[in-house]
Amino acid sequence: MFDFKYFTPTKVIFGKNTESRVAELINEFGGTKVLIHYGGGSVVRSGLLKRVTDTLDAAGINYVTLGGAVPNPHLGLVYEGIELCKKENVDFLLAVGGGSAIDSAKAIGYGVANEGDVWDYYDYKRTVTGCLPLGVILTIAATGSEMSDSSVITKEEGLVKRGYSSDFGRPKFAIMNPELTMTLPDYQTACGCTDIMMHTMERYFTNGGNMEITDALAEGLLRTVKRNAVILRDDPKNYDARAEVMWAGSLAHNGLTGCGNDGGDWMTHKLEHELGGLYDVAHGAGLAAIWGSWARYVYKNCLPRFKKFAINVMDVEAKGTDEEIALKGIEAMEDFYRSINMPTNLRELGVKATEEDLVTMAHKCAVGVGGEMGSARLLREEDMLEIFKMSM
Ligand code: NZQ
Ligand code: ZN
Known about the structure:
- The structure is a single chain.
- This protein has 2 domains: 11-180, Rossmann fold, CATH 3.40.50; 185-390, Dehydroquinate synthase-like - alpha domain (Dehydroquinate synthase-like, alpha domain).
- It has 16 helices and 8 strands.
- It has helices at residues 22-28, 42-45, 48-59, 75-88, 99-113, 119-122, 186-204, 212-234, 239-253, 267-279, 283-298, 303-312, 322-339, 346-349, 355-368, 381-390; strands at residues 11-14, 33-38, 62-66, 92-97, 134-138, 150-155, 160-165, 173-176.
- The strands form 2 sheets. The protein has a 6-stranded parallel sheet, sandwiched between helices. A two-stranded antiparallel ribbon has the order 6-7.
- Helix 10 packs across helix 11 (283-298), helix 12 crosses helix 13 (322-339) and helix 15 (355-368) packs across helix 16 (381-390).
């Protein structure tokens, strides 16, 4: 068991109609001029944005709006947001949407609070010393960005997708109304469930230290999301299932399910970020498409965890050798992905990669992680290429 830091400063307001409290929360955290940042328009179509601006108008809080954060959000819009905030003297950011709007808002917050080019942080050249305060109204349960320290941005030039983590970027508050997720396309709901599970699985498949309580929380979270993802497939308006998944999304990525271990593996995410950068695929679907290949490549190096996962999460019978049990667990996870219409390889993801593409992605991935990374198994560029090939 390792020492750990657990820092979750985000105030969570969870439940029906909680978005009506947004003005009160902005006041509580000292916002006087707000940038409302959102995505491609779902919050306009659902009427949520109008309800938010009406609430701010009624409370006398000034704001400007900036939409257009795309899935795999772009650096160009971040620059635009930074300029807008400076011009309008914005002192508080409100992201209304999913991980893309939230991550884009975090990047804008870094750009306003720090001198120089904001991409430097995503390029690991500098670290931030602050961030504009940020609040969130969440519309999709997936990334956990509403409580996490990370932000993932894609630089259009070279299609470089990179994450940056800092406690300064953790939102001040997160409003989570599960009803707001009921307008999601089924595909995005399933992508979200996949991402949530992966955030805990990345922390679970390690070779570095574990705590019994952390494992119990992780396994309970994984079983809960697995069960409720299937409920939502058949009954997308099920409030309780929406709520279970939404809260799991935050807990899966606020650090809780990694306390006491070495920080986790994270290579499935790193490999997926290359797919997201190059092919603009939905993050959760990209994870599902790569996970099985990663798991088969690394499981022998992390056998006790794969066996435990198979038995405690995937309900595999504890019969046979450890390797047989581990492999059955991987197969069961892939069956689960298929059951919620997620891809289990690049073909099913709709990606037609050439050999050259795979080489490029493996190289960019290796550069992005500084040469090698992974706790379940340490991976280098040649290993990354092999996993991409296996996932074809
Ligand atoms: O853009 P709009 O029009 O809002 O539509 C979005 C988008 O098309 C739509 N959507 C969201 N809420 C909706 C809705 N449609 C109808 N009704 C609603 N209530 O769903 C699509 C996906 O939205 P997006 O915000 O892109 O999804 P997600 O939350 O999965 O975010 C993905 C991004 O987050 C990054 C990913 O790499 C990707 O760039 N990640 C961020 C992390 C973090 N900050 O901690 C960790 C993750 O591992 C991940 O890498
Ligand atoms: Zn993720």
